[in-house]
Every structure is written in C-alpha cells, then in structure tokens.
Design brief:
Helix content: 10-25%
Bound molecules: iron/sulfur cluster
Number of helices: 5
InterPro entries: DUF5131
Protein name: DUF5131 family protein
Distance between the termini: 32 Å
CATH architecture: Alpha-Beta Horseshoe
Pfam families: DUF5131
C-alpha cells in the first residue's frame, strides 16, 4: 500500500518512483502493482492517488488505467506489472525495499498467484530487506499459508485510529519475521492498542494543505505504550501544511528506534533512540 514519505507528502503513500526513496526508514521503492481503492479515514488524502493522476497525464505507462471514481481515480486502477518483477534482481547492493508504495499488495484485485510471484522475488533476493505495508491484513492472514515468509520480509499494517485496530489482530496471524505498525497519519488516540508480538511502531502526523492535525497526547500515548511494552518506536514527523515546518522531535527527543534485525539481515544495523 502506499505510505507517507517522512517529510513530504500528505498521506501514507510514498511518491518516489525511483529506486532511491525519500522515506527515512527505507532505501528503495518497488511497485510491481500500482493502483488502489480507499478503505478507511487514513486514505482520505492518499498521495499515491493524487500522484497517479499526474503520472497518467504525463503518459506514464503504469498509470493509464482508471479506477472507480468513488474510491480510486484516474490512473489508479489496480494493475499488476509482471515486467517490474525482476527489478530487485538488478540491484546489486543490499537495500531496504518498500514494496508497493503506489498500491496495496493484499488488495483483493491482486491475484494470489501474483502475490506469490512477488514473494518468490523476495525469497530469491535475500540481500535485500523488504517492507510490505498493508491496510488489508485480513487477506494477508487468509493467504499466509500459501506464501513463504523469509526473514528478509517485514509486514506492517497502517493504524490511524482505534476504528482499525482489528488490523493488528490480523497482522499477528501472519508469520512475518518482523511485524510493524505504521500509525500514520495518526488521526486519533490509540489508547489500549495491543502491542503483543509487534516488533516496531512508526508514528507521524499528516502533512499537506488539508492536513488533519495530530494531538500531542496521541503521539505521547503510542510512544509511552511502546516504552511500556519494550517495542522500538520511530517518530517520523509532526506533519502540518509544510511537512518540515514542525520537525520530528517529541518532548525534546528524536525517536529513531528500529527493530532488531532477524538473523541474516544484511541491512545496516538498527539505530537507537537518543535516550
Ligand atoms: S490503502 Fe490504497 S488508497 Fe489507502 S492510502 Fe494506501 S494506497 Fe492509498
């Protein structure tokens, strides 16, 4: 699924089409699927949806199919791209790869056989660490036993408020080496969120013209829940009209904690929080 760039666009969707992402916690993006449909409040300002419209107008090949205007938009129909499957094989140096920044790998319209093809590539390229973020973990859980779960594949779910807390329960059913939460854009308190078997939490506010402000109590709440549960916490940004304007300090500290890397991971060592 699409996801927010750290100090950039307004939603959970990363804009970079290149192999050098601007996301702080990832190094590359790979989009073997493009297009999606809005599924919850966190999708309201989906950056990928907006970007797809622009890319269509520019004639970008991958963005010529239109989605349902009620939930998607121009250039944003769910489309698989078999020709993009071998892209990670061409990256010689190990990197962290954000999978489907312009879509959601577990969207119902992505055939299970194609999800499986994507996993095969991830298995065949153990030098890379793959971060898959979804708002559809129920499907991930349903087909999990048809997929390999190598140690270089991390699975995360987006949680913008407690209305979608059930996504964490589905995530727990998936045998991913690292399970993480992207609480971004954080739209409400997450009090009481169960962090059992969760390895990493990222939180951040929304940015862009129509951003929805994040209450400091929500940010503190999820940070303190992580501290209490011993879960690494990464605070990405406050958000705001200008993504950089409010910075990314929370109570005077930068929160850059990363999960423990599974054995065999070749990505740079985890950074630790400043405290
Ligand atoms: S789930 Fe789909 S519509 Fe929602 S933010 Fe992600 S890419 Fe956009």
């Amino acid at each position: 699924m699409g996801h927010t760039a750290p100090r950039g666009p307004p939603t959970i969707c990363e804009p970079s089409m290149s192999d050098r992402s601007r996301i702080e916690w990832t190094q590359a993006t790979w989009n073997p699927v493009t297009g999606c449909d809005r599924v919850s409040a966190g999708c309201d300002h989906c950056y990928a949806l907006t970007l797809a419209k622009r890319l269509k107008a520019m004639g970008a090949e991958k963005y010529q199919q239109d989605g349902d205007p009620r939930t998607s938009g121009p250039g944003f129909a769910v489309t698989i791209h078999p020709a993009a499957l071998d892209q990670p094989q061409r990256w010689r140096s190990p990197r962290t790869v954000f999978v489907n920044s312009m879509s959601d790998l577990f969207h119902a319209k992505v055939p299970t056989s194609f999800v499986s093809d994507v996993f095969d590539v991830m298995v065949d390229t153990p030098q890379h660490t793959y971060q898959v973020l979804t708002k559809r973990p129920l499907r991930a859980a349903r087909i999990a036993d048809q997929l390999p779960w190598p140690s270089n594949v991390w699975l995360g779910v987006s949680i913008e408020d407690m209305d979608v807390a059930h996504r964490v329960d589905h995530l727990r059913r998936v045998p991913a080496a690292v399970r993480f939460l992207s609480c971004e854009p954080l739209l409400g308190p997450l009090d009481g969120l169960d962090l059992t078997e969760i390895d990493w939490v990222i939180a951040g506010g929304e940015s862009g013209v129509n951003y929805r402000p994040m209450d400091i109590r929500w940010a503190r709440g999820i940070r303190d829940a992580c501290l209490h549960a011993g879960v690494p916490f990464f605070f990405k940004q406050w958000g705001g009209r200008n993504p950089k304007s409010l910075g990314r300090m929370l109570d005077g500290e930068t929160w850059d904690q990363m999960p423990e890397m599974p054995e065999g991971t070749q990505f740079p060592q985890p950074r630790r929080a400043s405290r």
